[in-house]
Design goal:
The complex is a heterodimer of chains A (481) and B (430). With 481 residues, chain A is an alpha/beta fold. Chain A has helices at residues 2-13, 35-44, 49-63, 103-112, 116-123, 141-146, 154-160, 162-168, 179-187, 428-436, 441-457, 462-475; strands at 26-28, 87-89, 126-131, 134-138, 150-153, 192-196, 206-211, 222-227, 232-240, 248-250, 253-258, 263-271, 283-293, 299-306, 311-314, 317-320, 326-335, 340-343, 346-349, 355-364, 369-378, 386-395, 401-410, 416-425. Chain A is 26% helix and 33% strand. In chain A, the strands form 3 sheets. Chain A has a 10-stranded mixed beta sheet, with helices on one face. In chain A, strands 13-15-18-21-19-16 form a 6-stranded parallel β-barrel. In chain A, helix 2 (35-44) packs antiparallel against helix 3 (49-63). The chains are: A alpha/beta (481), B alpha/beta (430). The A-B interface holds A 380, 393, 395-425 and B 326, 328, 331, 341, 343-373.
């Protein structure tokens, strides 16, 4: 109970508590988007010609595409020429120890509670912290290096491992995939790269903290994770962002490539600034995340806790190409006030005996709208494919909406596809039960909501689960009771 | 494609005789604005209608009316009941049996009824003419049609049979069928609608709109059997409006047709409404059967219950899309929706999309969808008792279908449909 009381304390005290702007100089590109900007970004990052060509190709393709309008979210039209596409913390010297880190940046981390030293010492998590767009500090590099694991910023990988980047970049999410993926391919600033060699089990959880820092900067992260045969990695991504009035666009791309017998577990806690109570400000989170189980017996698991962003629009997907491969998707999406979320997953079954599990929990409060949109596709040759989907929605208040749009496309008779969805509110009988036992209504709602999400939280790594529980409570502030 | 739209526009101006000139002109304007839907339209994502719209259907069908005997031969069990034959969109009085209309039931053609207050109030009020090209087309062309008025407090115990038939012999023909049912306060009725073809080999296109108004405390059961020939195209829109304390139940059995698309919209606009929707579709060969349903809960304390089942074999394609909308005021709603499909072959396809859109917090809404195959253990049980594999499968499939058929309370009709389903299942499975 003490943990829950603490949550409530924070809840009642809480404006967005991670809203602050740190004051270090940014090295910004001029506003707007053109071929010159693409060249500028590429030059800034000292990229080889092939990388620039790839970006330009993506940019030219992007010009031919139209902004999609089908999701169940509403926002003023984005002016792509009003966005700054590149911003880096100023001239970054190569750092060997944390002491050399810019004190401002370090303070930012401390405010976030990341505290690299502590993380390093206590939890054994290697952190590749990304502020705005350039990777500032990668820890545990050496230790991982001994096992042959490559965990570095994307731009370093372009220089140091061009053969891997050339082979895998765009292999899961092609540059032509969709409007925002194309945009990202053209202007992505940095991101993380991770390669786990054959048969290696990554001994620690790899973690990246993302922050959007400079006002008016779109953050275009690119993450590429490759698990070679028999490898295993658990990858964590967590985000907080400072308070802003302008809407900021975040269009990231995450690609996961899982070879034979490999397993990748990808967990996200997303807590970007959701805008104020009237829906002013907040971040647009339009992300393309996709993994491919390319080899036999491979597995990809997505776990996400989405509490932030004015608009969340993403569908972490798995292409189950290898026989006996497994895809999982566990999600908690919380929307409050004026937030909107249209999220879900796609499971494309291609190989034989492929399995997928989808558990999605949506909680809406205030005047928010929360949609689950998912596709389960069993192709003709996917013998004995199995899918189980469950999406539950919880409504807190009568001003919000919950929507479910599952698509089930089955082309094979041996497939078993199940989908279940429920929508309900916190039961009066449940609250009464708690009241009876001396638990106040607010505490009771906290308990019940956390219980509602338990299935998903159980999938999160320990540290994340605790954080997620707190975030959930903070996000629901004002709608409880 | 544009030429076909123009084709319909020309056909419209060629015939100047109109019962509802204002409505019809307006509907045609909607149609010409929208044109035919493409697969980019979410409602038509899986249902390609190119074969329908590329064809130049004849609007005038040679006078070749069905006789009462022919109808009775096809559906013998209707003998002695109230029978209305809706042939090519018009009532065929010779083949109909209106000799024993019970008190409280009024049967009229649309033309005859157009000045009745109830008809003026309800006609074309529920069909989605501005959103759906085929609804607009129907409204523009439906000059004739069937009006069923059930007086307040009237309890019509025996079922009213409507046999809808397209009687073109050789010419590929189109018919716009229009049915309006107005059930007065505290009334009760059962309507059984059977859509058939006269000729098994003629390509036909029936574009049907059914509007049902259920007044307070009234109770209506609507059974719809779609068994037109294998070459036919059928698009059928059913639009129901329920007032407080009313009860409506619809059982749809879709068997025949090359492309068959049903759209069922039910609006619950009063307290304590009760709605049951049951549907069965059995498709084989290269059939496409598409069921789109939508329930709009606008008021509190209503219950809706939906179960659709599909058995798809051959290279057939089954589509299900069920929507439940719960509006802000509709607290204490209970809505249940379930869709279950069995695939019999690897060339068969099922696309299911159960959808919930909820804006009220104190509700219980669930939906479920499954696609799979027969339970191996059940099959084994039957096999171990000496039943051969084909028979065992047929039994299990029929049992699966019976969950739907058992909701048809008109016994004669249920037995008749059950026979058709059994025959169709045999044809589909092997």
């Amino acid at each position: 109970m003490s943990e829950d009381l603490k949550i409530l304390d924070e809840v009642t005290g809480g404006e967005y508590k991670w809203g602050f702007v740190s004051d270090f100089e940014s090295d910004n590109a001029p506003k707007g988007l053109s071929e010159d900007i693409v060249r500028f970004i590429s030059k800034k990052k000292n990229e080889p010609q092939w990388m620039l060509d790839w970006r330009l190709k993506a940019y030219r393709h992007w010009l031919t595409m139209e902004e999609p309008t089908w999701p169940n979210v509403h926002y003023p039209k984005i002016d792509f020429n009003e966005i700054i596409y590149y911003s880096a913390p100023k001239a970054k010297p190569q750092l060997n120890s944390l002491d050399e880190l810019d004190p401002e940046i370090k303070a930012t981390f401390d405010k976030l509670g990341i505290s690299l030293e502590e993380q390093k010492r206590l939890s054994g998590v290697a952190v590749d912290a990304v502020i705005d767009s350039v990777s500032v500090k990668t820890t545990f590099r050496d230790e991982l290096g001994k096992l042959g694991i490559i965990f570095c910023s994307f731009s370093e990988a372009v220089h140091e491992h061009p053969e891997l980047i050339k082979k895998y970049l765009g292999s899961v999410v092609p540059m032509t995939d969709n409007f925002y993926a194309a945009l990202n391919s053209a202007v992505f600033s940095d991101g993380s790269f991770c390669y786990i060699p054959k048969g290696v089990r990554c001994p620690m959880e790899l973690s990246t903290y993302f922050r959007i820092n400079s006002a008016g900067t779109g953050q275009f992260e690119r993450t590429l994770i490759i698990a070679d045969e028999g490898a295993y990695v658990s990858y964590l991504e967590g985000c907080t962002a400072p308070m802003r009035d302008e809407n900021q666009l975040h269009a990231a791309v995450v690609e996961i490539y899982s070879h034979k017998d490999a397993q990748v577990k990808y967990s996200t806690v997303q807590n970007w600034y959701p805008g104020d109570k009237n829906g002013k400000g907040g971040i647009y989170n339009f992300v393309t995340k996709r993994g491919i189980c390319a080899g036999e017996n491979s597995k990809i698991s997505w776990t996400q806790v989405e509490t932030g962003s004015a608009i969340t629009w993403k569908y972490p997907s798995v292409i189950l190409k290898g026989n006996n491969s497994t895809g999982e998707f566990y999600s908690v999406a919380v929307t409050n006030n004026m937030q909107q979320a249209d999220t879900g997953t796609k499971m494309i079954h291609i190989g034989k005996n492929t399995k997928s599990t989808i558990v999605s929990k949506g909680i809406s409060g205030g005047k928010s709208n929360n949609s689950y949109r998912g596709l389960v596709k069993i192709t003709k040759n996917a013998e004995n494919a199995r899918n189980y989907s469950q999406c539950d929605s919880l409504l807190l208040g009568d001003q919000c909406g919950a929507h479910t749009f599952p698509y089930l496309e089955v082309h094979n008779k041996s497939a078993k596809v199940e989908h279940e969805a429920t929508t309900s509110k916190v039961g009066e009988d449940q609250i009464f039960y708690c009241n009876q036992r001396g638990i106040s209504s607010e505490d009771a709602v906290g308990l019940i909501v956390n219980g509602f999400c338990k299935e998903v939280f159980n999938e999160l790594p320990m540290e994340f689960a605790v954080e997620a529980q707190k975030l959930l409570a903070i996000s629901l502030e004002g709608s409880v009771g | 494609m544009a030429t076909t739209v123009e084709n319909y526009l020309e056909k419209y101006s060629a015939n100047q005789q109109r019962e509802f000139p204002l409505l019809q002109d307006k509907a045609l304007a909607h149609f010409s604005r929208m044109g035919f839907p493409t697969s980019k339209n979410e409602e038509w994502k899986y249902t390609g209608i190119a074969p329908i719209i590329s064809k130049d259907f004849s609007f005038s069908i040679p006078d070749n009316k069905c006789s009462a005997e022919e109808i009775l031969q096809r559906v013998p069990f209707v003998q002695g009941s109230v029978l209305i034959v809706l042939e090519n969109g018009k009532i065929n009085h010779e083949a109909s049996d209106l000799s024993s209309i019970p008190a409280g039931l009024v049967i009229k053609t649309l033309g005859e009824a157009k000045n009745i207050v109830d008809v003026k109030t309800h006609y074309n009020r529920y069909a989605d003419v501005q959103d759906d090209a085929f609804s607009a087309l129907n409204t523009a062309f439906a000059n004739d049609g069937l009006v069923l008025l059930i007086d307040s407090k009237a309890v019509i115990e025996k079922p009213v049979y409507v046999v809808q038939v397209l009687s073109s012999d050789n010419v590929a023909a189109i018919a716009h069928n229009r049915i309006l049912v107005v059930a007065g306060k505290n009334s009760e009725a059962k309507i059984s609608h059977l859509a058939v073809s006269k000729n098994e080999n003629t390509e036909t296109f029936s574009n049907t709109i059914i509007e049902v108004f259920v007044d307070e405390n009234a109770s209506v059961e609507y059974d719809l059997l779609q068994d037109e020939n294998e070459k036919s195209f059928q698009i059928c829109g059913t639009h129901v409006y329920q007032s407080a304390n009313s009860r409506f139940s619809i059982n749809t059995v879709a068997l025949g047709g090359s492309i068959l698309k049903n759209k069922l919209h039910i609006k619950l606009d009063g307290l304590n409404c009760e709605t049951h929707m049951h549907g069965l579709y059995v498709a084989g060969g290269s059939q496409l059967i598409d069921n789109h349903t939508a329930v709009y809960h606008s008021r509190p304390h209503c219950n809706s219950n939906e179960l659709y089942k599909g058995i798809i074999g051959g290279k057939a394609h089954g589509v299900f899309n069920g929507k439940i909308f719960v509006e802000k005021d509709a607290q204490k709603t209970n809505a249940y929706q379930s869709n279950k499909n069995i695939l019999l072959s690897n060339d068969a396809v099922v696309n299911a999309k159960p959808q919930l859109e909820i804006f009220a917090d104190d509700v219980k809404c669930t939906h479920g969808a499954t696609t799979g195959q027969m339970d191996d253990e059940s099959l084994f049980y039957l096999r171990s008792r000496g039943i051969n594999e084909n028979d065992a499968k047929a039994m299990l499939n029929l049992a699966f279908a019976n969950d739907i058929l058992n909701n048809i309370t008109v016994e004669d009709l249920r037995n008749y449909i059950s026979g058709l389903v059994e025959a169709k299942l045999k044809a589909v499975a092997y």
